[in-house]
Each structure stands twice: as C-alpha cells, then as structure tokens.
C-alpha cells in the first residue's frame, strides 16, 4: 500500500482569509483521527504530497495548508497582505474553520518558525509538535545566510556567483529586489536564477527546481520576507518563547547550512522554554530530500502520535 492509499483525500477547500487571499487546504487520512497541521517552509514553497510519507501511523487527520500566495493558494505569488502576522492569524482562522479544538503541528525551516510562534501565542491550541531545521530570523541568522562572514565562508565560489560584487547584506537584498522588478526580463530571470542557485546549494545540493513559475514565486516571497526582516519574527520569538507549553521536538541537521544548530540553541538558551534544546541529526542536511533528516522527522512524528494516543 502506498502512502497515498494509506492517507486518502478527505476534502480540499479554498478559504477566504481577507486581503484578497484564498488559502488552499487539503485534508488527508482519517476523518475522526488526531488532527495534525503541516506547515511548509520557504516562505512560499507550498505543500507537496510527498510530505505525507512522514506519517507512518494510522488514525490521523492531516491538514496540508498552502500559506498565502504559495502552492495552490490564490492569487499565486501575491506579496500584498503577505506578512508574518497574517500567516499566524491564518493558522488560527483555519483551526476555527475546521472546528479543531487542539491539534499537533509539524513544520520545517520557516514553517518551523511559524509553528514555534503559533504554539507560543496559542498555547492552549497545540497538543504537541515536531519542528525541524528551525530558522532563527535574527540579524545573526540573516547575516549567516546572506552575509560574507557566515556560510559564505564555506561555499565561497557559490557565494561569489550569488552576490556579484555587492558587499553589504542590506545592499545585496536591495539589489535583488531591484533586479527582480526590472523591466528587462533577462535581468529579472538572471537574478532569480542566482537566488535559487544559492538556496539550493545550501539546502538541497544537486537538486533543481524544474517548474519555472514555482521557482520565481518562491524567490520573490523569500526575498519579500528577508527584505522586511521577516516582519518582526525574531523580536516576537524573544517575547513569547517562554510561553510554550506543549511537548516539542526540534531537529537540526549537522550539515544544515541554512539553519545551523548553534543559532537555534543560542536562541533557546536565552529566550526559549526551560530545558528545551534542539536535537542534532548526525550528517543531516536542511531539507527532507536528505534521507537522514526525513527518517529522523518521521521517527519523531511517530513518537509524538504515540504520546498523544496514550494521554
């Protein structure tokens, strides 16, 4: 039996959340099962059916939510009304619409950031959660990812292709925004390809994004959030981190060049709940394309569900 047979489609909907945005929500599995919300990364990546393979136990009702302007949400790629507060508010609107009292969360990268924040702001709504490759949107996190003194020291040749002689991180992001909106399509396309090449070099070495429009939207939404310092996500994480109540597992890959464990544990030691630290996945990378990370996340999901069933 394939994972798609085990987790058949229950229903799919487009939910109007205001500001001209409609979110695509697909539900899989057991209509009477434990509710689990999946939060994709990016921001802007959208959900994939392949991610259902993370669930190896029955008795789940899985909510696959495409965040604003991502995946099959409408309008695709729209930046207006697309910010952190709206993404968090959308999650709560979806919960209310679905009639779910409490649910489990599962999210990676920026999806893990959203899950962490949501579980702190709405602590009574989350049963438990598994987060991986947690992105810390601090100045240090942004400099690590886009500045010359961070991961650029490891991927020096790829970084030179990425920056093209721009020294300052803020100037770099400003230049990308200018190029993304240039009237010349060759300039736009070349800048988007450089952005995606840098991301893939760090997050998924050897992989490519074959869907041109998907790559373009992902790059634009990611830049939109980076240019706006992720709309205050880090100060908010500092303010609400200690409010987290639910059992939480955070998995970070040893070879995660996007979200290094050091930044995660530095944050948690200062602003997180007592005793919460990330777990290192030996030789793990950033994304679920990596078999070690995928296995670690899947195992943690199984443990989370067994915990919930025995409560």
UniProtKB/TrEMBL annotation:
One example GO MF annotation = hydrolase activity
In its keyword annotation, does this UniProt entry include Cytoplasm? yes
What family is this protein classified in? Belongs to the peptidase S33 family.
Q: Which reaction does it catalyse?
A: Release of N-terminal proline from a peptide
The organism sits in which domain of life?
A: Bacteria
Listed name of the protein: Proline iminopeptidase
PANTHER family, alphabetized: PROLINE IMINOPEPTIDASE
Task: Quote the EC number.
Answer: 3.4.11.5
**Keywords for this protein:** Aminopeptidase, Cytoplasm, Hydrolase, Protease
Annotated AB hydrolase-1 domain ranges read: 35-290
Q: Which Pfam families match?
A: Abhydrolase_1
The principal location of this protein is cytoplasm
Q: Where does this protein reside within or beyond the cell?
A: Cytoplasm
Top-level enzyme category: hydrolase
Which organism is this protein's natural source? Shewanella algidipiscicola
């Amino acid at each position: 039996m394939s994972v798609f047979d085990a987790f058949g489609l229950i229903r799919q909907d487009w939910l109007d959340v205001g500001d001209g945005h409609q979110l695509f929500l697909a539900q899989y599995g057991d209509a009477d099962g434990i509710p689990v919300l999946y939060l994709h990364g990016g921001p802007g990546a959208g959900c994939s059916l392949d991610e259902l393979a993370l669930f190896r136990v029955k008795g789940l009702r899985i909510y696959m939510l495409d965040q604003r302007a991502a995946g099959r949400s409408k309008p695709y790629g729209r930046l207006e009304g697309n910010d952190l507060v709206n993404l968090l508010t959308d999650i709560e609107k979806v919960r209310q619409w679905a009639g779910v009292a409490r649910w489990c969360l599962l999210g990676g990268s920026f999806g893990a950031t959203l899950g962490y924040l949501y579980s702190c702001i709405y602590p009574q709504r989350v049963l438990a959660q598994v987060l991986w490759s947690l992105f810390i949107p601090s100045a240090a996190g942004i400099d690590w990812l886009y500045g010359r003194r961070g991961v650029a020291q490891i991927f020096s040749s790829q970084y030179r292709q990425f920056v093209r002689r721009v020294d300052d991180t803020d100037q770099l992001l400003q230049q990308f925004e200018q190029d993304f909106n240039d009237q010349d399509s060759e300039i736009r396309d070349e800048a988007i390809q450089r952005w995606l090449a840098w991301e893939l070099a760090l997050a998924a070495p050897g992989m490519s994004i074959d869907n041109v429009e998907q790559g373009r939207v992902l790059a634009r939404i990611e830049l939109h959030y980076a240019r706006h310092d992720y709309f205050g996500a880090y100060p908010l994480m500092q303010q609400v981190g200690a409010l987290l109540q639910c059992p939480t597992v955070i998995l970070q890959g040893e070879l995660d060049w996007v979200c290094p464990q050091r930044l995660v544990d530095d944050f948690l030691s200062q602003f997180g709940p007592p005793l919460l630290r990330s777990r290192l996945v030996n030789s793990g990378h950033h994304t679920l394309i990596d078999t070690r990370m995928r296995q670690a996340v899947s195992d943690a999901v199984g443990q989370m569900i067994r915990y919930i069933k025995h409560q």
